[in-house]
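Sanity check record (used in CI):
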Amino acid sequence: SLLPVQFCKPAFAFLPQSPGSAAATMEFGNAKFGAVALALQALFVALFAAFAKYDEQADAGLWGNATGRLRPAEVGTENSLGPNYPMFQDVHVMIFAGFGFLMTFLKWYGFCSVGLNMLISALVIQWGMLVNGFFHLKDAKFSIDIQGLLAADFACAAVLISFGAMLGRLSPLQCLVLSLVEIPIFVANEYVGLYIFKAADMGGSMFVHVFGAYFGIAASKALTAPGDGKNSNDHSGYSSDLFAMIGTIFLWLYWPSFNAGLASGDDKHRAVINTYLSLAACTVVAYAASALFEKGKFEMSHIQNATLAGGVAVGTVADMMIRPYGALIIGCLAGLLSVFGYAVIAKKLRAANILDTCGVNNLHGMPGLLAGLLGIIYSASASLDDYGNGLYQIFPARAPVTANGSAFEYVVKDGTLSVEGGGAGRSAGSQAAFQAAALGLTLLCAVLGGLLTGFILRLPILDPVRMENFFQDDRFWHVPSNYDARPFGGEGSVPLNDKEAEEPV
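Expected output for Ammonium transporter AmtB-like domain-containing protein:
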């Protein structure tokens, strides 16, 4: 009786509850999540044991202590992990800190925003490696190296973008299911785009951003019931918006690594420069457009998100010869497009009951479509005059066809490279057509896959979150005593009227 009330509450969670009570449903749902999460982790352990192996650079039986030898390129170097590791670290920070804190803008949903972001990422790292590995099995095994870790983080980004569209309305169990269903569709689409269509998309603007955005929006539409958008907990606070800006800064700083991480040689150098310039121009234009749309004042949601759109819009062409001024122009277009999305298009989507909590259409979707269109344009104009033999490094399918499937070898500044099995002898126009096909297929897979996933997430067995619990941490977390969100319909948390529902969130 001497303990404060908030410390007594957890003890009652283990007492018998009436079968239909909210407390009983909550405890059963949380226990179900724990059982499913443990079962999934056990399955991952078994699958890694059966199918995964170290890449030869990490295998002690081939290099290092067992033989006393190091790979020639690593002798005398401080970082034997190779040039991709620093960029992998940058992207890793983007996934866990950047995406996580960017989503903390909701006033009463910070624990879930950054916490479920971490849960999804940890799950997808493992599941993404497995699914991607099954597409590249050799001798019944797939290898894991630093580039594979980077690719797993790219898969995380796609799922986190989709999660952002439904932020505040998913339970932890639904997050697990979202990840399990989305990753196979994501990997299959990426495999077709990269290895069959042989499309260029170095920064993943099509295969990561467009896919993740429209998968999430389609899933959100299928999940949404009438009236779900009228909840006054769907708003930010002064402190929560400040935390979200931390995520923005992390993403802004490290985005060049995201776009350049999988590139090599001069392509990597060029991708960093192009992304850096695009982000800078985008930020200036985003601030200007926000002031114009908002009658002279800045809107925080614009600054948190639209300032990053330049990184998305330049992603597909980041390693191409777009010239420095071209990168600046792309950034300007992206900043204007993204702010227009938040100020105008977001209202129209909400009026149609298409809920997009984080505005992923404005940051990832529309700038990603712009990137896809730019990929078509720059692919159609790419020539040996601009690229030299480096053209075949960015567009392997444009390399000449070789006899008997032998490799096509070509010389660049860094040495002799090759296209395994030879190229397809494509023209610039043909390559542009395949770029368009990859973009179209990505949109189709994203929308159909998202709709299917949304209907799955509605299944009662997954304990969908009730409307009165949207955008509230205390449904899933022990919260401190100063946590003040009230149930939907109660004082301080009432349904929005039609006029308020039209206001930008």
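Strands lie at 52-54, 142-144, 408-412, 415-419. If this sentence no longer matches the regenerated tokens, the check is flagged for review.
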